[in-house]
TrEMBL record:
The gene is catC. Pfam families: MIase. This is Muconolactone Delta-isomerase. Keywords: Aromatic hydrocarbons catabolism, Isomerase. It is an enzyme of class 5 (isomerase). Belongs to the muconolactone Delta-isomerase family. GO terms for biological process: beta-ketoadipate pathway. GO terms for molecular function: muconolactone delta-isomerase activity.
Amino acid sequence: MLFHVAMEVNLPPDMPKAEADDIKAREKAYAQALMRTGKWPHIWRVAGRYANISVFDVADADELHALLSGLPLFPYMDIEVTALARHPSAI
Ligand SMILES: O=C(O)C[C@H]1C=CC(=O)O1
């Protein structure tokens, strides 16, 4: 099942740089591990914002929630999820 996921990151401006760098490094490792499994096949930076548009390919919304809530940056993200269904005109 495919989901369109929009993530916006809002790190506190007063977070120490070392802490922010550590979370970002753990986030990258977590995200790339999921990409290698095929569960996170697309990620695009939203130009001009600390945000991304992603596509997840998972069994259901419960699996998606488990993966998203495991993101190291999850406590600092606003996330919008849209379930995708096959378009009748798609070939
Ligand atoms: O940079 C981001 O968009 C946030 C997050 C999502 C994947 C990743 O590596 O970082």
